[in-house]
Amino acid sequence: MRQIFNFSAGPAVLPEEVLQQAAAEMLDWRGSGQSVMEMSHRGKEYMGIHAQAEADLRELMGIPSNYKVLFLQGGATMQFAAIPMNLLRGKASADYVHTGEWSKKAIKEAKLFGKVNIAASAEDRNFTYVPARSTWKLDPQAAYVHVCMNETIGGVEFNWEPETGEVPLVADVSSTFLSRPVDVSKYGLIYGGAQKNIGPAGLTIVIVREDLIGHAPSGTPTMLDFKQQADNDSMLNTPPTYSIYIAGLVFQWLKRQGGIAAIEKRNIEKSSLLYDYLDATGFYANPVDKADRSRMNVPFTLKDAALDDDFLAGAKARNLLQLKGHRSVGGMRASIYNAMPIEGVRALVDYMRDFEKQRG
Ligand SMILES: *Cc1c(COP(=O)(O)O)cnc(C)c1O
């Protein structure tokens, strides 16, 4: 057992079993004599790893056969541009729901390619909630509707799946990937970077409905064209092979845990433990509407910000790491992704209670 609990927002904690397996296979992957890092991406060993990772992801998420799974690079941030490039399909505008920092970045980038209509925004209350679907002003002519399913910085999560009728729904799931069941058929495109809930940095996953690709305008760089990536099994060039291998080990670990429904139950249990404590004390606070709180990223503040440094130092002394909040909001943030054991959340709550007793 490792001695620390890592609450980093990303890159983030990975299952210990996966790290141990990767360590055991580091020098010689299953009798091949090579590390996965050293394998040709066109060789049969690596091709097998790649295909298995895709098959396991499809099984875990129940991805229908008319969706492509792409293993790309450039992070979710690259997708902020690639999505309008591929999905505008000659239409004038796209609808965006603005729920915080990551939505804001997606909106800014989309404006390079077309008109952006802000269908709803939570700015009026400092991005502490998800605007109700009934308040959205959707344009039936929009190319797509973009949402960020979990605002990693603000700790605001969609605890429901939006309906957008005929207009394709596009979802950034970077920090909620595989943490709860998703009905893929409700979405035109789902995307996210791997380094929050799936594996190492360097891998970005895009799941896209087939009819939405193949419409990128001429002049679109080959690497950013979903159709070309799909037609080449994400191997137009060298894919991030080692990141895909680790993601594949995480998918198998998730299957051993009982799949997404089982992991969701644990995520509810872990996040409730922390929120119940936050709500029971006046010493700490979380600003997000209860119904919209994130199960993955829990920001909180101390009553007196002058105690922040002492809180962090004390946490570190108890092997509770990376609790400092995002620089844009301050305070604390505990990211409790799939791979965070419940013991980690218990240790955090115990520490918070002790700190309050001493300093409150
Ligand atoms: C981290 C994050 C991003 C940016 O991801 P990169 O892979 O670093 O580009 C985008 N959206 C959300 C919701 C995130 O949490």
From TrEMBL:
| Enzyme's top EC category | transferase
Write down how the cofactor binds this protein. Answer: Binds 1 pyridoxal phosphate per subunit.
Tell me which stretches of the chain form a coiled coil.
none
The reaction(s) this protein catalyses: 4-(phosphooxy)-L-threonine + 2-oxoglutarate = (R)-3-hydroxy-2-oxo-4-phosphooxybutanoate + L-glutamate; O-phospho-L-serine + 2-oxoglutarate = 3-phosphooxypyruvate + L-glutamate
Annotated Gene Ontology cellular component terms: cytoplasm
Can you give the residue ranges of the Aminotransferase class V domain?
4-348
Q: Where does L-glutamate bind?
A: R42
Q: Which GO terms describe its molecular function?
A: O-phospho-L-serine:2-oxoglutarate aminotransferase activity; pyridoxal phosphate binding
* Keywords in alphabetical order: Amino-acid biosynthesis, Aminotransferase, Cytoplasm, Pyridoxal phosphate, Pyridoxine biosynthesis, Serine biosynthesis, Transferase
The protein's job, in short, is: Catalyzes the reversible conversion of 3-phosphohydroxypyruvate to phosphoserine and of 3-hydroxy-2-oxo-4-phosphonooxybutanoate to phosphohydroxythreonine.
| Name used for this protein in its record | Phosphoserine aminotransferase
Q: What is the lineage of its organism?
A: Bacteria, Pseudomonadati, Pseudomonadota, Betaproteobacteria, Burkholderiales
- Chain's gene name: serC
